Amino acid sequence: MGLLEKRAVKAFQDGSYKKLTDEINAITGYTIEFEVNWDSLAEEGSADKYEDAFTMVYFTPLVSAVKEIAADDMGKEALKDALKKVIIKNEGGYIYGSSAYKFSNGVLTIDHQPCTNVDNGLAERTTELAAILMKNL
After folding, report:
1. Domain total for the chain?
2. Which residues of the chain carry a pLDDT beneath 50?
């Protein structure tokens, strides 16, 4: 990871990341632990895309899914009982939500390339993520 990528990751961490995780925790009504492998997300030469790409690939689908699930007390309670941690990384080379999400032992793992299918795959990621969460609650 070069200096441009380090700066872009730091800017996201200091800005949008905190706001997005706070929003997710506010929706669910409890604190979810987040673990992000920033080095794996930092694709060389894509620093100018991180703000939009990280938000659209990793967080917008999660916000939408937890909003859908936490629409009532039953959903909020199910989330609180089941979802303890979210791991975000780019290690498997996955570009579609159908293969990017895993849920096991209270941990949701999102393993998706950060700068691929950013806009085009948003609806699919949201649908897949909501489905895997609901199946495991």
Report:
1. 1
2. none
